[in-house]
Give the backbone structure.
Amino acid sequence: MKQLSRLAVVFIGLAVLLAACNKKTPEPITVTVKIEGDVDGEAIEFDQIKYTNQAGEKYSIEKCVFYLSNIQLVRNDDSVYGDKPKAHYFSLRDGRLTTSLYNVPVGDYKAIRFIFGVAPELNTTGGLPNNPENINMAWPDMMGGGYHHMKLEGQYVANGDTGSYNTHLGDLLKDGKRYLIYFAVELPLSHTLNETTRTITLGMNINEWYRVPHTYSFAAFGPAIMNNPDALQTLRENGADVFYVKKVE
Ligand SMILES: [Cu+2]
């Protein structure tokens, strides 16, 4: 009898152990980060002078290429998922709308963080892989080298005149002074990421580049702003609220 009950204890113990093993932590997932551009909620239609900025100038969008670096996900317990330093390339016109984050733990997340532009540790000439997309984003060596954070281009109409605008952002070296134009963004999430919910879509409202805290005028700053710290810093400050979380699915 005593022997039998001892056997029972062993069996129960084995069963508990097996159950515990079956409840193993889920495999990490690949999370997709997707960008959707808009102008105050309206989807971008390229080459149409149909948008109006805060300064009252009509404008079109012909190109929108940019980097987001060092994307991180913050869990509810404050632990942070992050890859090694990496600049993720996006081109809204050419359908380069997504990037992947690998080996993300399943769990509850409360924020997504990234650097808008090329992170400083990568932003030197040759700091990114030598492929055509990065080469096209090169920032002139005489202006500090490295890469553009963004090229946003189009036409505008102001006071009856038509012109081109080139919202080219980069870290500028001018007269021995370095102007850092990249900036950090953190956006709230309240989602469980798992095998079925793993695409984070960020909206990018182009009009936010041109308002709050500063009303930006294409006509006033002119078509060439890369060597103009005042224009670059104005856009940097306006950029804080360009991105928002659109959906997680
Ligand atoms: Cu440029």
In short: The chain has one domain: 26-248. The first strand starts at residue 29 and ends at 39.
